[in-house]
Design a protein that fits this description.
Layout (H helix, E strand, L loop, with lengths): L4 E7 L5 E6 L2 H9 L6 H4 L4 E8 L2 H13 L2 H11 L23
Antiparallel strand pairs: 1-2, 1-3
Length: about 110
């Protein structure tokens, strides 16, 4: 089975943005929502998944993540709103499940 890599954008209530890449989006979002990662996302309460896209090659996913991180905020907002104009959490139930089990990756 071919691995899928996802570039994702999460935000907090005031729409502060965080962009990342992972091979297991459900696990990674669970980590952010449950504040397992003691960094920027925990400190700023980044907990809402608002955008993601899939890639078959990790190099393409990392390149896309870097491109998005280099954009001005307005362009990131336009990207999010092109598919999620109401900024709905695309993973609202993921912290209500038991911890997802899979191989470790970020």
């Amino acid at each position: 089975m071919k691995e899928i890599y996802r570039v994702y954008i999460m935000c907090n209530i005031s729409k502060m943005l965080y962009t990342g890449v992972t091979n297991n989006l459900e696990r990674r979002v669970f980590q952010h929502k449950s504040k397992e990662i003691d960094r920027f996302t925990k400190k700023c309460n980044i907990h809402r998944l608002v955008y993601f896209e899939a890639f078959g090659d990790i190099r393409d996913a990392i390149a896309r993540e870097k491109r998005i991180k280099g954009w001005l905020r307005a362009r990131k907002v336009a990207l999010i709103e092109s598919v999620n104009p109401e900024w709905k959490d695309l993973a609202p139930e993921w912290t209500k499940k038991t911890r997802p089990v899979s191989k470790v990756s970020s």
